[in-house]
Amino acid sequence: MEEKKETQDLAQLKKEMLGTAIVKDTDMTPDMLSEVQDSIVSGIENNSAPILSIENACKTIKEALEKKYGPTWQVIIGEGYAYDVTVQNNTRLFMFYNGNLACLVFKS
User: Fold this and answer.
1) pLDDT > 60? residue 15
2) What is the rounded radius of gyration, in angstroms, for the C-alpha atoms of the chain?
């Protein structure tokens, strides 16, 4: 009985996390952060049927950011990586999408 409740709670938590973005590190202004997060979420969701195409999602996000904020944006999406990059001030965002998909965007 207790195990069944824990399984239901876990399923509910997964449902709630679907489509959520958790910002881990950023130096962007709040307005820019909101717009970049929206670009990332829409880029991932538009390229995730039936399975996520990371390459296409990165391309979509990069094009959207370069159209809005100018050239030389870099987009990295994946699981289990570390980074050490030099970026322009106020252009770095590292976030998690759906709990385990890491997204790093920055302007070089």
Assistant:
1) no
2) 16
